[in-house]
Amino acid sequence: MFHRTKRLFLRPAWPEDWEAVLGGIADEDVVRNLARVPWPYGPEEARAFVSRGQDLGYPSFLLIRPEDGRAIGCAGLGDRDGDAELGYWIARPFWGLGYATEAGGGVLEIARLIGHRRLSAGHFLDNPASGRVLRKLGFVATGKVCPRFSCARGSEAVAAEYSIDLDAASVAPTQAAA
To answer: Which of 70, 84, 91, 138 could make an S-S bridge to 24, C-beta 3.0–4.6 Å?
Structure first.
């Protein structure tokens, strides 16, 4: 499954992408904001990530800038206790440029196309930028703030939870491609 937004090409990660993934995520400040990614993150973890199978109900994508072919992060859906959850990370040099919001919007379009009606998402409270991204995408805070385990931190951290009703949400088109 592939998708195109205004500035990004979303595609599955391939085995030869392991170094690009490692180059973007092997940064403790990136990884500590994620729930499921360990720290330290090394070549073995990157190779395992790009070699895993793609779940068509919960796809994940490498985010590629078409102008230079550079991988700048990942975004996709995960299964969290039976609910579809949006997740993403952006390599530090690309923070603050709107890529997380753009990629998230692309994933929301895909989620709607493959039949998801509602998504959840969250962010650790010490990462308020991610909360801003979620709100720009149309996610609404559920009012639930609770501990969530962070593999990178090796402990729980307080996280705010959000949800979006895809039938009611208005997501701007991002020039879908196959």
So the answer is: 91
Query: Residues 71-107, buried b or exposed e (16+ Cβ, 10 A)?
Result: bbbbbbbbebeeebbbbbbbbeebeeeebbbbbbbbb
pTM, rounded to two decimals = 0.92
Q: The dihedral of CA 169, 61, 67, 34: what is its sign? A: positive
3-state SS class at 89? strand
Report the C-alpha gap between 162 and 175 in whole angstroms: 26
- CATH number for the region 3-165 comes to 3.40.630.30
User: Domain boundaries in the chain?
Assistant: 3-165
Query: Distance (Å, rounded) from C-alpha 41 to C-alpha 37?
Result: 8
Average pLDDT per 10 consecutive residues for the chain, totaling 178 residues = 97 97 96 95 97 94 97 97 96 97 98 97 98 98 97 97 89 43
